[in-house]
Specification:
The protein is an all-alpha fold and about 70 residues long. The protein has one domain (about 10-65). Helices cover about 75% and strands about 0% of the residues. The chain has four helices and no strands. Helix 1 runs antiparallel to helix 4 (about 50-65).
Length: about 70
């Protein structure tokens, strides 16, 4: 369980953009227009790939440091 640490604040700070990016990427498939509008308003229209990459990088760096 090197990468999954749900009790860690840094893990949640990295998992949040990961999940947001996955939701933005899945919008055409599932019709999540309202959710994506909210995410885009909060993030400033950052592309889904950038959000996913930021989340994965944060989780990986957090695990590498520890």
């Amino acid at each position: 369980m090197k990468y999954l640490k749900p009790t860690s604040l840094t893990w949640w700070a990295s998992a949040t953009p990961l999940v947001a990016g996955l939701l933005v990427a899945a919008e055409p498939l599932h019709g999540l227009f309202g959710v994506v509008q909210t995410i885009n308003a909060v993030t400033g229209n950052i592309p889904a790939a950038a959000l996913i990459n930021a989340g994965l990088a944060g989780i990986g760096i957090r695990a590498a440091i520890k």
